[in-house]
Amino acid sequence: MRRDRILAAALSAAFLITPALKGAQPSELEQLKQQLEALKQHYETQVKQLEQRIGDVEQQTKEQAEANEQIQAAAAAPPTQERANAFNPAIGVVLIGTYGQFSRDPSKLFVPGFMQGDESGPGERGFSLGESEFNAHANVDDLFYGNFTLSLADEDNGDTKAELEEAWVQTLALPEGFTARGGRFFSNIGYLNKFHPHADDFVDRPLPHRVMLNKQYFDDGVQLRWIAPTDLFLELGGEWLRGAHFPAAGAGHNGRGVWTAFGDIGGDIGLSHSWQTGLSYLSARANDRESGAQDDPNHFTGKVKMAIADLVWKWAPNGNPYRNNFKAQGALFWQNQDGVFTPAGGSGLNYDKDQLGWYLQGVYQFIPRWRLGLRYAQLYTDNPGPAFDGTELDPLGHTPRHYSAMLDWSPSEFSRLRMQYNRDGVQAKAANEIFFQYIMSLGAHGAHEF
To answer: Which of 147, 159, 378, 397 has a CB 3.0–4.6 Å from the CB of 137, allowing a cystine?
Structure first.
């Protein structure tokens, strides 16, 4: 069809030229004949090129149809062992090693005026394993997702303790923005609590986290979260937990000793700024909870109430954090413990006091791979009276403070080397602390939240 049209155009051109041929001189006639011949050759060449292109397109269409048939046949075929392997869990290992140097014995750096769990200390002297972890996670099917995390950490006596940190399943297909989780998991109370230690910006957790949450609160139970269908990020949720871990203890109320509620809201400001703020609340029952020295502990039985307000702000020029970025975060803690405190070797004392804590930190990546961080934290507690003199709840007229400066280098997203200095002012006589740390990730590890 295309060739006929081109030939017709050539004939039309010839008819247009014919009248000119009749009145032309011999030399001019020869020129016109040559032009006509060149025009015919030009159109013949175009016809051949179009025919070649048509043939190429027809061949490509045929090959694509055959490829589609093969894909459809493979999808309809029964699954082979190779395809089944795609459902194996993603496995990752995070190796953390730390060297700590303390001007005072870290086991004696308790915070006066506060009941503390066994994980609230500042760290270990010399070389220690830190909290290395093994993680496996995958989709169970189209409805559920599973996660398992086992941690290895050094104890004060030099032994290595294996602890099951996470073992939970989560829904993938609940409607209307809802997500449910069940098993053992890090609580969503506060911004920092849900993150693994290797994702922290400093070697140690902020002082309020260490003292009030025993560094990190996890427990067994269920969690329900809802994300609103709005342009601004809005998430609300709650948890119902067993209550076996600090700040709870003893799995009160028949294994339903803790409930929490939390809400987060956040968004972007232009291309370079993003923010998130949250408010969370915890109500717990502590049955014969131990604190203080492990060989001769104190005991507390009563109610624990805690509220945390947090704020996070991130900056990256035009949203690209590769060269420079900055992250600021902080939180305000309030805690009330109402019950009976029994000091080691003593009799029970009624206790009902409020306690406060807060921290503020900033981390700046000044060139690619290099970051500098500063942090300040402080605690405050009411004086419970002379009956508590000489116990761990005696504040000794001192306000605990803590200062940190950090420098780290990340050759890649899988490795980090860190150096940190702490001025530990939890007691009247301050202590100096220096840490060196490595964090190495092997295998798969999912990205963390905002």
So the answer is: 147
235 shares its domain with 360: yes
Pair 198, 346 in one domain: yes
> Within 13 Å of residue 327, how many CA atoms lie on the same side as its CB?
13
Give the pLDDT confidence score for residue 407 in this predicted structure: 98
Domain boundary among 43, 76, 109: 76
Query: What's the CATH code of the domain at 309?
Result: 2.40.160.10
- How many Cα atoms are found within 13 Å in the side-chain-facing hemisphere of 110? 18
Same domain, residue pair 106 and 60: no
Which residue ranges in the chain fall short of pLDDT 70?
Answer: 1-26, 59-87, 155-158, 446-447
Percent helix, percent strand, percent coil in the chain, to nearest 5: 20, 45, 30
Per DSSP, what are the bridge partners of residue 315?
273, 326
Q: Which residues contact 215 (CB under 8 A, 6 or more apart)?
A: 117, 119, 120, 205, 209
User: For residue 116, how far is the Cα from the chain centroid?
Assistant: 27
What's the pLDDT at 25? 56
Tens digit of each residue's pLDDT (9 = 90 or more) over 162-194: 899 999 999 999 999 999 999 999 999 999 999
Domain that holds residue 117: 98-443
Q: Count the domains in the chain.
A: 2
pLDDT at 293: 85
Residue 6 has which token pair? 């081109």
Q: Are 280 and 189 in contact (CB under 8 A)?
A: yes
Given this model, what pLDDT does residue 77 score?
44
pLDDT at 85: 42
Task: Give the residues across from 329 on adjacent strands.
Answer: 312, 361
Long-range contacts of 69-72 (CB under 8 A, 24+ apart): none
Length of the chain: 450
Nearest Cα to 114, choosing from 276, 260, 282, 300? 300
